[in-house]
């Protein structure tokens, strides 16, 4: 017997869904009916196609369920497996195309969101209730990682910061410094929940005394790639606060982890501004931290 080139189920036009849903006996009856109908059309005695008639004969003999049910089951299984692989490959190609489209649109949205943040910082005015300003206590996570096991870093106050926000002003008191500093043009981008990111893996680093120190900023490129999709235009507890300064467009600053939020009145704020605040430069972000030129202790063997 000549070997058939195509699977008999394909020759008789059986769909994969039909082959899956019907029992072998029912499927065979349908194939038998199709075979007889096609032979009436292609039989040489009726002026049909001899090659096509021969192909139909070979295909039917190969899956004649009455004579050889095992062969029927074998061809059916092979047919479904081949079509499953083909379908899977097609679906995979479609998914890859959709992923490329989604990636493109995601990058486009990130860039547009950043453009919005650069030009529309006033959207954060909705954070403030009339007659009140926000006071936030932060854990200085960068100082904690860099210096918490350092001999000169004994005072726990050095691990915390306080920020006071108004729609137009940011005051900051860090570490053991008794005064707030008025930061100019320092802009709040928003907050990211603590369980969404691990920022220390993304921060810039510097090498000092054979140890890497985290800097308090990350690159804008990294921020756009890894963080901006999680950014919320608000200040939330147990979240990281990120800031931006127009004079340093490629840096995004992490001030710390929000521990406590409270509102103070505008009168309280004005009193702090008059009595407990000095005008500082926006780059004064490391006040109250131990100097980096103190050598690390040598561990004894």
From TrEMBL:
PROSITE patterns: DNAJ_2. Residues 7-83 form the J domain. Residues 85-112 form a coiled coil. InterPro entries: DnaJ_domain, J_dom_sf. Residues 281-301 are annotated as: Disordered. Transmembrane segments: none annotated. Keywords: Coiled coil. It comes from the Bacteria. This is J domain-containing protein.
